[in-house]
Design brief:
The protein is mainly α. Helices cover 55% and strands 0% of the residues.
């Protein structure tokens, strides 16, 4: 650790961040890779769509309450 860092983060805080990194770094990297791949497809002209499992929300008979007087 570089000089002065101990005044910003305690040993406990650093241990906490290190634990988070150990636990979640693989997932974080996987999500970032998926994000990069998706962005490449969008940059190539692919249009984002909706999830198939939420189609019922979009195809339902939507009605709203009338406006108040």
């Amino acid at each position: 650790m570089q000089p002065g860092f101990d005044q910003i983060l305690s040993a406990e805080a650093l241990a906490f961040v290190a634990d988070l990194h150990r636990r979640f770094n693989a997932t974080r990297e996987s999500l970032l890779a998926a994000r990069t791949e998706r962005q490449a497809r969008i940059d190539a002209g692919e249009v984002p769509g909706f999830l198939a499992e939420t189609a019922h929300v979009r195809t339902g008979d939507w009605q709203v309450a009338p406006t108040p007087d």
